[in-house]
Amino acid sequence: MNGKYRILLPVLSLAFLLAAVFYLQPRAMSYFGLNLLFNLAVPIALATIAQMMIMMVNDIDLSIGTFVSFVACVTATFLHDTPVLGVAILLAAILAYAGLGALIHIRQLPAIVVTLGMSFVWGGLAVLLLPSPGGTAPVWIRSLMTVKPPLVPMAVVACVLIAGISHFLIMRSSTGTLLRAVGGNAQAVARSGWSVAKLKAGAYALAGFFGVLSGVCLVGLTTSADANIALRYTLLSIAGVILGGGEFTGGKISPVGAVIGALTLALAGSFLSFMRLSPDWQIGAQGAILILVLAVRLLFSRRNRKWKEAAQNG
Amino acid sequence: MDKSFVLKLTDLPRRPWFWAFAASVLAFGATTYLTDGRGGAGLLSAALTFAAFSAIVGLGQMFVITLGPGNVDLSIPATMTLAATLALKFMHGETALVLPGLGVALLVGLGAGGFNYALIRLLRIPPIIATLSASFLYQSLAIWSNRGLRIKPPEVLADFTTGSFFGIPNMTLIGLLIAVLSWIVLERSIFGRWVSAFGQNTRAARLSGVPVEVVRAVTYISSAVLASLTGYFLASFSGGAALNMGAEYLLISIAVVVIGGSSIAGGNSNVPGIWGGALLMFLIVSMLNSYGLGAGVRLIMTGTIIIGIVAAASGKGRAV
User: Fold this and answer.
1) Is any Cβ of chain B less than 8 angstroms from the Cβ of A114?
2) How far apart are CA A295 and CA A162, in angstroms?
3) For A155-159, A295-299, B102-106, which range has the lowest pLDDT when averaged over its residues?
4) Quick one: closest CA in A to B74, which residue?
């Protein structure tokens, strides 16, 4: 699939799902309904962008769910009680992410194992901070997440902002191009004089940054935190990136697609509850939707290849 | 004769699995040192039992990881849970149904592995996403059939999984048996050569006549079958199937492969290391436990130790 079609399928699947939801529940077609549908999608979209930063450099982050949970715990405790210390901890967490990126590159470690190990570390830290669910959301994030802009609900505005900013950062800026090049051909980047270790550290730091945003937003929505609050984000974020047209290797990613992928997954949950599907099948249906979209994507790319072949022959 | 023995001894540290066993011995020593040597036998027996579960799923994961970059089975926990739930439900605590129950578990494994492979092959989905999305389906099936009930395993089966034979836990014997079989398959059979060839260079393997798709299918199916077997035994061992029983085995199955010295990039695996890694994973946790550390610190230490081992063991001899 080339660049132009990459974004088409995620947009179509989101539109299809949205149409189905509106058909089943016409009342969702309102300011309030949309806000309700997409509210919890904001932190998922941010976590998906974080995952995308890692997948951009050909790695995969299996710790993002525990990391977001850890950030949520910090937000509900330190960031609320002693804001300066809270900010310092979150900055240190981003630095830790950058350090991991450098370590993974310098020692040529498998990212899947290192991040799996880190998921224990973040999980442990989160348990230390909040052994039982609790904490309080800082007032400013609470009011930021519940602000009611005119015409379009906050959740939609936030998602458009996230997509726009990350698109500009990754697809339009020179740094973004370099970062994607690390995923495409790290050797070529190194040969042309760039430090791949620094670039990889940068990509990981960006992932840490978006992970922090995700955790803070999540607490803004839920008002309290616990150590397991975002564990499912690991799988959701990987699925979101893939649904959005990203690939595992080659630095082929799409920030706008990733946000749309995250929205699709979040919407899938609401769609299924409108279908009155038993909660037992919720997770399974998300898996089925994922498989379905990938199957359609295969059809797209095959059709595309046939056209190209026909064009060449004709 | 003597000389060759000495040579072999000095050669040991160069074996990829050596460090996992050395670290296990250290962790064992550190734990028993604290208790003045008391409880050493109990700890050893517990370690051998729990390591057996990790080793069996680890062996399945090892074959999958040997296939090369991008190949990993993320559906292991869900397959374990589904197989255990369906098998225990089928047996319903009746002794006569123990063997048919095992058959049900293995069938679940065959089905799950076949489905995983079908997604990878027919829909060309990357294995990570294929096994991940399939695991959602298995998980839902397990939730649906379990309904929050905890069905007890047949008495005979519970006794067997917790029992021992001449002082060696039964589960250890099963784990060792599967390890020996896996070693023969990997090191002494044509299929093992095929798996390694697939992981080293799939294109070259295909061009030289290796039936690559058969290799991939058998590998994914055997991983799922080993997972369902573990689920069957683990549920009987712990007195019933729980929906979260497989959760920790995702990390463990990957960690034991890497700690055991197999290459995460594929193409080069070794079986003894799986047992070394499995023992180490259990002994680290029990060491941290016996030093009286809380759950949080224990998790942090476990994660740090895994990363430390991986950072120390790899990073040499691999071209950028």
Assistant:
1) yes
2) 28
3) A295-299
4) A235
| Subunit contact B300:A121, Cβ cutoff 8 A | yes
Q: What's the residue count for chain A?
A: 314
Question: Interior CA angle at A211 toward A9 and A47, to 5°?
Answer: 20
pLDDT at B250: 86
- The model's confidence at residue A217, banded by pLDDT at 50, 70 and 90, is very high
* pLDDT value at B55 more than 90: yes
pLDDT band at residue A308 under the 50/70/90 scheme: low
Chain A contact probe: residue of B119, B120, B136 with most A CBs at under 10 A: B136
B-chain residue closest to A118, CA distance: B303
Residues facing residue B169 across a β-bridge: B164
Q: Taking CA atoms, what residue in A is nearest to B122? A: A295
pLDDT tops 70 at residue B29: yes
Who has greater pLDDT, B243 or A216? A216
* Domains of chain A by residue range: 3-304
Q: Do A113 and B134 touch (CB under 8 A)?
A: no
**pLDDT (tens digit per residue) in A133-144:** 988 999 998 888
Distance, in Å, from the CA atom of B271 to the CA atom of B54, rounded to the nearest integer, reads 13
Number of A/B CB contacts below 8 angstroms equals 141
Question: Measured between CA atoms, how close is B133 to chain A, in angstroms?
Answer: 4
**Does A188 reach chain B within 8 Å, measured CB to CB?**
no
| C-alpha distances out from residue A188 to A174, A191, B15, B265, B319, Å | 16, 5, 34, 21, 14
On chain A, the residues whose CB falls within 8 A of the CB of B148 are: none
Which of A:93-112 have CB within 8 Å of B?
103, 106-110, 112
Calculate Rg over the CA atoms of chain A: 20
Structural class in CATH, domain A3-304 = mainly alpha
Question: Which residues from chain B sit within 8 angstroms of residue A131, using beta carbons?
Answer: 296
Q: Which of residues 19-48 of A touch B (CB under 8 A)?
A: none
Task: Fill in the amino acid letter for B153.
Answer: P
Tokens of B212: 């690559």
Give the residue extent of every domain in chain B: 18-30+39-311
Distance of alpha carbon B298 from alpha carbon B302, whole angstroms? 6
Q: Which of B254, B256, B265 is nearest to B315 (CA)?
A: B265
Enumerate the residues of chain A whose CB falls inside 8 A of the CB of residue B296: 124-128, 131
CB-based contact B263:B118 (threshold 8 Å): no
* Residue A92 reports pLDDT greater than 90: yes
Q: For residue A167, give both structure tokens.
A: 């698109």
Is B248 within 8 Å of B255 (Cβ atoms)?
A: no
Do B295 and A120 count as a contact with CB atoms less than 8 A apart? Answer: no
Interchain contact, A108 vs B137, CB within 8 Å: no
The pLDDT-based confidence of A1 (bands split at 50, 70, 90) is very low
> How much is the pLDDT for A178?
92
* DSSP type of residue A221: H
Query: What is the least distance, in Å, from the CA of B177 to any CA of chain A?
Result: 27
B18-30+39-311 CATH fold: ABC transporter involved in vitamin B12 uptake, BtuC (1.10.3470)
Q: What are the two backbone dihedrals, phi and then psi, of residue B107, each rounded to the nearest 5 degrees?
A: -60, -40
